[in-house]
Every structure is written in structure tokens, then in C-alpha cells.
Automatic annotation (TrEMBL):
Native source organism of the sequence: Phascolarctos cinereus
InterPro entries: Cyt_P450, Cyt_P450_E_grp-I, Cyt_P450_sf, Cytochrome_P450_fam2
Superkingdom, natural source: Eukaryota
GO biological process, one term: organic acid metabolic process
SUPFAM superfamilies from the UniProt entry: Cytochrome P450
Broad enzyme group: oxidoreductase
Name of the protein described by the UniProt record: unspecific monooxygenase
Subcellular location: Endoplasmic reticulum membrane; Microsome membrane
GO MF annotation: an example: heme binding
Topological type in the membrane: Peripheral membrane protein
Family: Belongs to the cytochrome P450 family.
């Protein structure tokens, strides 16, 4: 069971993205060309795509349940990016190249190495863990709603597929398909997909504002390849070489997850005219 199933079901991931893109355009039109901060609306867009995949339906941007979910995700991201997670307590700020030693011994990493002591150690990790529990409760509520109307022969979203698989393996004592895992899968999708996608979109907007000549070329390619009478689709990707290059350049520019798993070459690498030292 994978997310690829949604390319074969009633509604594919692409259709869900297209629907949300139209809602984004409508929200931007409401600004009537006035200066606006797109941070919140871009977060709503990326979060809503995940909601649509998981829960079948999207939320309106002013829906109370959706705003509650957004607040949890935003607070979680804020806490993870506060100084206590970036360096040791009382350690002065320092440039990235000076953080290679003690500065990168993040508190969260220490807590993960000593899970038995997490309940006794001070820090914002307690609030982060509480938020994760609230996120799991939010997802469990939706799961219970799905269980009431589940049709295993006609799954509509990720939770339907998962619950159908749970039914198939209900007699398997070793199964990994249980309620705890579906909750954690949902939390992983929200945590990994909402902020990363919205930050990339926001940074992309910033870059094309800084480079209007790039913006003009993107618009020209869109008008040439797509026009004004239909929605863009994944099929257009092969014909929109410039747009694809811009997307890759945005991802090259942005320092999206600077403290993820470290990457380095383990020997000197020669690539074209470049040398990557060990």
C-alpha cells in the first residue's frame, strides 16, 4: 500500500493539487493587487493537499478544525526552530562554520539518545511531544469517522486504504497495520510536507520577485505551453524546461532543512570541472 495508489483511484494526488491551486488563486485575487504576506495562505495550501489525501476532503481556510490543525503544526515548527534546538543552552550565537563542534550537539539529539530520561529533563521537547499527541488525536478523530462509513471495495483516500488493509490483516498477529501507525503516518506527512512545501513556494516567490526577468520568462513559457483555458498538469512538465530549471534552482538556493542528516563525500570526487574534497 503506497501513495501511488492515488494515481489509480477516484481522485489522484494531481487532481487534489489542481483543486487547491485554484483555491490559492481565488485567495490571492481577494488581495486585489495590494501588498500581502503569503506565508499563512501558502501553509494552508500545502496542509490542505495533505488533508485531502488523508481525509478525502479539503477544509475551508477559515474552518475551526483546520485552523486548530494549522496552529499545532505552526507551533511545533516554531519550537523545533527555537535556539535551544540549534545550540546548547547559554552558548553564544555563532556563524554556521563555527558550529561544527559543541554547537551542533542539539538538545533534541541528546534527548533522543537518552529517551528514558526525557521525562526528567527540562526543555521545550515536552511541549513538542504534547503537540504530537494532539496531532495524533486529531487524526484519530478522522479515522473514527472513516470507520463508520468505510467501503473496502471503494476506498476514497489514504485512511480508507489503510483501514481496508487493517481489516485484511486483522488475524495477523505480526501486522504493522494498526491505529497507532496510521496516526504516526499522518503526523509524518503533515510534519514533513506542510512547512517544507510552503517554505519552498514562499522562497520561490521571493526569488522571482528579485529576478523579474526570470518571472517574465516563466510567464512566457506558461502562456505558450498551457495558455489560459485549462489547468496545468504533470504532463506539461516535459515541455516546460525553463520552469523545471527554475524549480530546481529554487531548491538549490533554499537552505530548507539545514540540520537534517549530514551529507559529505567520503573521498575526493571529480565532477566535470569541479572538485569535491573529502
Amino acid at each position: 500500500m503506497t501513495l501511488r495508489n492515488f494515481g489509480m483511484g477516484k481522485r489522484s494526488v494531481e487532481e487534489r493539487v489542481q483543486e487547491e491551486a485554484q483555491c490559492l488563486v481565488e485567495e490571492l485575487r481577494k488581495t486585489k493587487g495590494q501588498p500581502t504576506d503569503p506565508t499563512f495562505i501558502l501553509s494552508c495550501v500545502s496542509c490542505n493537499v495533505i488533508c485531502s489525501i488523508l481525509f478525502r476532503d479539503r477544509f475551508k481556510y477559515d474552518d475551526e478544525k483546520f485552523l486548530y490543525l494549522m496552529n499545532l503544526l505552526n507551533e511545533n515548527f516554531r519550537l523545533v526552530n527555537e535556539p535551544w534546538t540549534q545550540r546548547k543552552h547559554n552558548e553564544p550565537c555563532c556563524p554556521p562554520y563555527e558550529r561544527e563542534g559543541n554547537g551542533l550537539k542539539m538538545c533534541m539529539s541528546l534527548y533522543n539518545f537518552l529517551p528514558a530520561f526525557r521525562a526528567y529533563l527540562p526543555g521545550e521537547h515536552k511541549r513538542i511531544l504534547k503537540i504530537n499527541e494532539e496531532l495524533k488525536d486529531f487524526i484519530l478523530e478522522r479515522v473514527k469517522e472513516h470507520q463508520k462509513v468505510l467501503d473496502p471495495n471503494n476506498p476514497q483516500d489514504y485512511i480508507d486504504y489503510y483501514l481496508s488493509k487493517m481489516q485484511q490483516e486483522k488475524d495477523n498477529a505480526q501486522t504493522e497495520f494498526d491505529l497507532e501507525n496510521v496516526k504516526m503516518t499522518g503526523v509524518d506527512l503533515f510534519s514533513a510536507g506542510t512547512e517544507t512545501s510552503s517554505s519552498t513556494l514562499r522562497y520561490g516567490l521571493l526569488l522571482i520577485l528579485k529576478y523579474p526577468e526570470v518571472q517574465a520568462k516563466i510567464l512566457e513559457e506558461i502562456e505558450c505551453m498551457i495558455g489560459h483555458n485549462r489547468l496545468p498538469s504533470i504532463r506539461d512538465r516535459q515541455d516546460m524546461q525553463y520552469m523545471g530549471a527554475v524549480v530546481h534552482e529554487v531548491q538549490r538556493f533554499i537552505d530548507l532543512v539545514p540540520l537534517n542528516i549530514p551529507h559529505a563525500v567520503n573521498r575526493d570526487i571529480h565532477f566535470q570541472q569541479y572538485i569535491h574534497p573529502k
